[in-house]
Design brief:
- The structure is a homodimer.
- By secondary structure, chain A is an alpha+beta fold.
- In chain A, helix 7 packs across helix 8 and helix 9 runs antiparallel to helix 10.
- In chain A, 36% of the residues lie in helices and 21% in strands.
- The first copy, chain A, has 2 domains: 136 residues, Creatine Amidinohydrolase, Chain A, domain 1, CATH 3.40.350; 213 residues, Creatine Amidinohydrolase (Alpha-Beta Complex), CATH 3.90.230.10.
- Chain A contains 10 helices and 19 strands.
- In chain A, the strands form 6 sheets. In chain A, strands 4-3-2-1-5-6 form a 6-stranded mixed sheet, with helices on both faces. Chain A has a 3-stranded antiparallel sheet with strand order 7-10-11. In chain A, strands 8-9-12 form a 3-stranded antiparallel sheet, with helices on one face.
- The interface between A and B is medium-sized, with 27 and 27 residues.
Amino acid sequence: MKTDHLLATIRRTLRRRRLDALLVCQPDNRRYLSGYTAGDTSINESSGVLLILAHGEPLLFTDSRFDLQAEAEATGFKVSLYPRGLLPLLDTLLPKLKIRRLAFESHYLLHATYQKLAVVAKRNHVELVPCTDVVEKLRVRKNEDELARIERSVLLNEKVFLEIYHGLRPGMSERQVALSIENCMVQKGASGPSFESMVASGPNGALPHAVPSARLLREGEPIVIDMGLILDGYCSDMTRTVVLGTPDEKTVTLLRLVRKAQLAGTQALRAGVTGREVDRAARTVIAAAGFGQQFGHGLGHGVGLAVHEAPSLNKRYRRKLSAGMVVTVEPGIYLSGWGGIRLENMAVVTEHGHRLLNRDTTFLDI
Amino acid sequence: MKTDHLLATIRRTLRRRRLDALLVCQPDNRRYLSGYTAGDTSINESSGVLLILAHGEPLLFTDSRFDLQAEAEATGFKVSLYPRGLLPLLDTLLPKLKIRRLAFESHYLLHATYQKLAVVAKRNHVELVPCTDVVEKLRVRKNEDELARIERSVLLNEKVFLEIYHGLRPGMSERQVALSIENCMVQKGASGPSFESMVASGPNGALPHAVPSARLLREGEPIVIDMGLILDGYCSDMTRTVVLGTPDEKTVTLLRLVRKAQLAGTQALRAGVTGREVDRAARTVIAAAGFGQQFGHGLGHGVGLAVHEAPSLNKRYRRKLSAGMVVTVEPGIYLSGWGGIRLENMAVVTEHGHRLLNRDTTFLDI
C-alpha cells in the first residue's frame, strides 16, 4: 500500500499543531503508516516504533530480530536499530533532530513507560504532547486497496463458516466447533482469527459475549456463531444464528425480527447520517416488538486493521458517517434461560447508501 | 487457592507506605489475589479491577457480563458492578471510603486512562501513587498449590510434545506442526498455548524467536520446537531440538554442548545465588567452546501465571533467587545460515538446589 499521502497528512497535522514529531507505538497505526507488518506480542514487547517528523524523512526503529523485515516492508522509511532500547536512542536523537515538542500516543503508552520517557524528555528540554487519534482519524475511511482486502477477508470468513456449518452435528461441543473454526481459518490461508470465536448454543446464547463451553449442540435450539479472521492484515467479523433440524416457532419469529432490524439498520447507512441514527433505525424495530430491553449492546462498530475500531453505531455516537467507512450491523435479542439470536454483516458506507460485503445468507431469510 | 495471607501482606505494605488502597488492574495480579479467573481481551477491555484497602474488606468491581463468575470465584471479596465504568464509580467511592492516597499499577495503566483517573483523583483530593511491583513481588515465590499446578502444566505440555514429535514427518510445514501443537493442547484440556508455539527448521532455527513458516521439514536438520500451555491458570514452557532421521556430527556436537550448558545452569540453581551467577554457569560452557557470541539471550526467566515473569537468569540480574521460584533454563546456539539448537527445561529453586519439573528427555542425552 502506498502511504505517502498519509504521511503528508500527518506532517500537515503536526505542523498545524506546532509539533515537531509524532512517536507511533500502536501496532496497527505503525503498519498503516509504514507497511511494516510485524505485530506486538504485548504492549510490553514492541516490534518497533515510528518517528514521523514534521519536516524530514520518516524513521522506523526496531531491534535486530526485525531488521530485515522492516527494511523490506517499510520502503518509505529509514530503518535503524535501537540496540539498547527506545529510550537511550531518543536521548541522543531528540537533540540531534532538534525536537522541542514531541507527540506520543497516549492510548498506547503505559504510565510506567511514560514516566521513563518524561525523564528523557525533560533532560533534553522536550515537551511531551499526548495524542489519541492522529492516525486513527485517517484509518477510519478506507481506500480502494483496503476495501479490497477487507472484502477478501469477509469472503474467506464466509467460506470457513459454510464449511463448519455443513459439518455441524448434534453432540459436538461448542469448544470443539470453535476450535475447528480457527483451524479451518488458518488452513484456508488466514493469519488467524480476528477475535476468539464464539459458539453459544441454547441458553448459552443469552450472553452476548459467551465463551465456548463443553456444552453439546442439540437439535432445534438456536446456535449463535460469531467469528472473524485476519487476512493480509485486515479483519472480518460475522455472526450467524443457525439451528440443527427444525427451528421452533419462537426461534423463527425472533430470527425474522432480528433480520428485519438488521435490514432497517443497513438501509439507514449512508454518508452524513450519525452512528446514533443508524442504531436507532434497527433498535426501533426490535423495541416495537417489545424486545428493546433484550437488545443490550450497540448495533455495530468499524472494522479494518483492528476488528473493533471507529466509528460506532450506538446511542451515544453523534458523529456523522463518511463514505469509505466499514461497519458491522449486528442487532441481537438475548433471553435469559432461553438463548440468543444475533445476525451480523459488514457493509461499506457510500455517498448515497451502502455496499454490503457479505454474500452468505444462511438462516438470514427463513 | 486461599489468598487471605496474601491480602494481609498487601495490607501491611499499604500501611507501611501510608497508602489507603491499591487499585489492581493487571489480570494475573487480579487472579492471584482474588481467585477470579477472567482474563482481559486487551488492556482496553478489562473484566474487572480489585480495590485492596489498607483497612477493610477487599472489593472487586466488574460489569454485568462477569457478575456471576466473580461472585463464585472471588469468595473473599465484596463484588459490585460498575454500570457506567470504573471512573464514575471511583468518583463516588473515593470520598466514601476516605481514600487520600491511592496506589495504582503504573505498568498496567495506559497514559490516557491515567489522565482520566487523575481528573477524578484531583476532584476528590486524592493523591495517586504509581507502583509497579506490589503484587508481582509476592507472585515470584510459589506456594505448594501453585507448584502442583505448574507441574501439571509442565507434564501436560510434555504429553503434547511427545504426541506431536512422534507424528513429525519430512514434508510437513512448520506452520502445520505449530497448529497441531495448539490443537493437541486444547484437546488434552489446556486453556490454550501460553505463547505462540515456535517450530523452526533448518536455517530458520537461527532466529531465537522465529515465527512458524511455510517451510517444509527435512530429514537430518535440527528442528527447534518451543512450546508451552496454560492449565488451570499456570503456564509451562519447554524447548526441544529434534532431528528426523540421523543427525550429522555438527548437530550432535552442538546438541551435546548446549545440553552440557543446560546441566551446568541447572546445577547452579539454589536459594541465595543471583540470576547472574546461574546465567554465567551455563554461559561459560558455551563460551569456552567458542560459541559465546552465538548465545545472544539470557539463560532463563520465571514462569507462573505469566509465561515470562520475575526472576530473570541473565547477565544483568543481580538479585538473589529464593526457594519456591520457578525458572526456565534454556541455553541456545544460533548459527546464521545453518540453524539453531535450544534446550529448555523448568525447575523449582529450593533451599539447597533445585527440583526439575520436566521428565521428558527427547534428544537431551544423545
